[in-house]
Amino acid sequence: MTTEATVETGAWIRRFHPAPQAAHRLVCFPHAGGSASFYFPVSRTLAPHADVLAIQYPGRQDRRHEPCVDSIPALADILVDELAPWCADRPVTFFGHSMGASLAFEVASRLEARGTVLHGLFASGRRAPSTARDERVHLKDDNGLIADITRLSGTDTQVLGDPEVLRMILPAVRADYRAAETYRWTGGTKLSCPVAALTGDDDPQVTLDEARAWGEHTSGPFDLKVFPGGHFYLNSQAAQVIAALKDHMK
């Protein structure tokens, strides 16, 4: 078995507050256009109760000069190898928001195929893999892309008003939108782990039926949690979301 002492975080993983003695590990997958730092407050709050890892996609922040990966399956193929050693020494829960939920599901499926079953999967702000919409925002021009980001309130308005910063982040945002919008579940066996779907009651990206359909993707327990708010409900409901994670990782 690989021990923690031999595991390197590498380019794909950020471990802001290492908690080597924690009984549980939480792996967080960012939304489209997001970065690992989005989960810094979660890591700070949960340490030392949980050892929190956050995924850093290429094309942003310290990886901004690397080419983006615009495919959920391609990202999952990479991340299953990156995360496998971190799933060998204690119970692990995945948390993914929006695009990150689809990616977390695909990585979890690949891990189960290798014999590793998660402690749980939290799918936030994302419709179930078995549901699909014809979305083409990634094909719009920059103004159209910015308009959609603004509509969902996923990026600080100061960033949206800074042309230089926008030029830096838009390629990554577009690649992530392409990955999320072109993702199609190819079928296969259900997960064995518990799955919880989290959604805002005013999220234009996810209906309650689409969130509830996550239950079709596990043979284990399923729970649907509905919070006040839109697509980024978790910004205003952070305390409640973290409480749910703590309860799950008891």
TrEMBL record:
Q: Which UniProt keywords apply?
A: Hydrolase
Does Hydrolase appear among the keywords? Answer: yes
Pfam families on file: Thioesterase
Every Thioesterase TesA-like domain range: 27-249
Q: Does the keyword Hydrolase apply?
A: yes
What family does the Swiss-Prot or TrEMBL record give for this protein? Belongs to the thioesterase family.
Instruction: Write down what this protein is called.
Output: Thioesterase II family protein
